[in-house]
Structure formats: C-alpha cells, structure tokens
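Notes for week 9. Today we move from apo structures to complexes. The key idea is that a small molecule is not decoration. When we ask for a structure prediction with zinc ion present, the ligand SMILES becomes part of the input, just like the chain. The input block below holds both the sequence and the ligand string. Read it once before you look at the output, and try to guess where the molecule might sit.
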Amino acid sequence: MGIREDLIFYGKLIKSYIYPDRCVFCDRVVDHGISVCKKCRKTVPVIKGARCFGCGKPKDKCKCAGRRRFYDGVAAPFMYSGVVQTGVKLWKYGGRHKNTEFFGKAMKRVIDENYKNIDFDFICYVPQTEKEKEKRGYNQSRALAEELSRLTGIPVKGALFKVFETRRQHDLPWYLKSGNVLGVFECIDAQGVKGKNILIADDIKTSGCTLGECAKVLKLSGAEKVYCVVIAVR
Ligand SMILES: [Zn+2]
Ligand SMILES: [Zn+2]
C-alpha cells in the first residue's frame, strides 16, 4: 500500500470508531458495513410469499378481501411490527436519516419483484404543507421517493399539493381517518398526470386512507395506474 492508501485506510478505521455503523432497527453498534444486527435479523417481520395488493399484507394475514382504495396495488418489504416499528421511528424521529438508503433498497426489491411489468412514468410522494415541512424538518415520503429514483432511474415528480394541515393519521381512531384526509390533496399538473403510470412512495400504510386519497386525486386527473410502495404495512 502507498501512503495515500494507508491514509485512506486509517481514516476509515478512525471514522468507524467515532461513527460506528448501527443496526437500522435497534441502533446497536454493528460490524462495519452491516445494516442489521444478528438479533434483529432473526425477528424482522419480512413479507414473503403471496401478498394481497389491496392491503399489502401476506395473503394469510389479509382481512381486506382485496379491497383497493383507488390505488391499483400496495406492496411493502415489511410488516409494521416488532423491530420494524422501532426502526421506522428511529429513522423518522431519531435523526437516522441515512437509513433511508437501507429502506430504499428494501423497497426497490419489492418493486422489482411485484411491479416488474409496469412501466412507471414517475414516482410521486405524499406532500406536506409548508407549516408541516417546517415542523418536521423534512418530508420522509419525498426522501424515499428520491432514494427510489436514484436506485431505479425513474424520475420523481411532486404531482400533488396539500391544501390544509391535518392531524396525524396515527393519532386518530379508525372512523376519523378517512374524513381527516378527505379533499386534502390537489393535483398540481393534471396534464402531466394524464395517462401516466404512477408509483407513490411513503413510509407506512396503516388504514390506507392517505394513499387512497392521493391515488383518488391522481386518478381523477386522468392517471392510468397508481401503485404504492411503502416500508411497512400494518
Ligand atoms: Zn438490531
Ligand atoms: Zn388484503
């Protein structure tokens, strides 16, 4: 090794002591270059085998009978439970923004496996109002859309606009969820949406009301197909 290579090697070594790699799910320190610790690897609720595209769950856990909320399908790499719950919270609220890379890769695998025959024109994200953006610092749905764009080469387009602020879907009982987001999104560019196949990226799907409302607006503006991809479904 030359001096330059030596310096790079020791630089990386020191960096790995100061900023060690951490498990994306539980934040434990892991060996350099590893994303998931041994313990989490055993318990991650990965969605495998036949899945329901109405709710995104494995077929044997689905209770939706294939009901689609204006979108043509939703798919996710994980169930929103156990270590995935801690991992998503860590990423959203714990400042682990770099975990977007890991979640993006997992979502890309799901797209490759489940949407391989669909020629997407662009990736869209769930918009926030200016106030919400300010409060949260960044739009995690957009961060995922941009990461997926980097991985797939499909462009990102902010096709939707959020008209007013809403309460967090998470905090609401099921019977208020669909009303909370009703009429909250508008299409920015109907011409650019007409006849297009669109992929919406978001973090988690719980009731599906938010994704359904986004898909509805895109379909009303003439979108051909609207599919969703999320990190996890509940
Ligand atoms: Zn872990
Ligand atoms: Zn289902």
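Strands lie at 73-75, 78-79, 122-125, 160-162, 185-187, 197-205, 225-233.
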